[in-house]
Structure formats: C-alpha cells, structure tokens
Design goal:
Order of helices and strands: EHEEHEH
Distance between the termini: 29 Å
CATH class: Alpha Beta
Shape: globular
Strand content: 25-35%
Strand order of the largest sheet: 2-3-1-4
Number of strands: 4
Radius of gyration: 15 Å
C-alpha cells in the first residue's frame, strides 16, 4: 500500500480563492471507494494501491481543467514502503511518540 501527498491547484484564474477548484479535485476522491484520504491545509494525503493512486491523481488534475482552469500545477509525493504495510495514521503516531522522548 502506498501513501501519496497531492496538491492540485490552478494558476492564473480570475478568482482569488482556489477552494472551488480544489473541491472539484476532491470530488474525484469521494467517488473512489478503495482510497482513504485526509484533507490538509496544503496537501491531501491519500492511501491505496500505487497504480490506483496514480490514476486518481491524473483524474484529480483533469478535474481542475474541467472546472475551467487554463493551467494546473500538481505536486505529488509518494511513500511506497514494500517491507511492511504502513497506514497514514501510523506515520503520524510514530513521529508523535518520538517527540515525547
């Protein structure tokens, strides 16, 4: 299972707020039953099989174009650990435990 941080945003739009475009990208995730996700202020973290995540990332990117953007920037970071299964919350818990020491 892979974990992906993704940020999809238009540039050069007439609107100052980008939340409408981000919402269109997130609607793609809502329609995916096999992907877990957490929305953050700058990135959304998604979890699932890597080929599925890559497909979803492309569809999120395209959704922003479909919402009317002429230019879209997408940033992706992937953590694909193959020695054991790790969930999004496991990574956060691990760091928080080490902070207490």
């Amino acid at each position: 299972m892979a974990i992906m941080a993704i940020s999809v945003a238009p540039s050069g739009t007439a609107e100052k707020s980008l939340s409408m475009y981000v919402a269109k990208a997130l609607n793609v995730l809502e329609a995916e039953p096999h992907i877990r996700y957490e929305i953050g202020s700058m990135f959304t973290t998604i979890e699932g099989d890597l080929p599925v995540l890559m497909d979803v990332a492309q569809r999120m990117h395209e959704a922003v174009f479909e919402a009317g953007a002429d230019r879209v920037g997408t940033v992706i970071k992937i953590d694909d650990r193959r020695d054991r299964s790790v969930r999004m919350e496991n990574k956060v818990t691990s760091v928080k435990q080490k902070m207490l020491k």
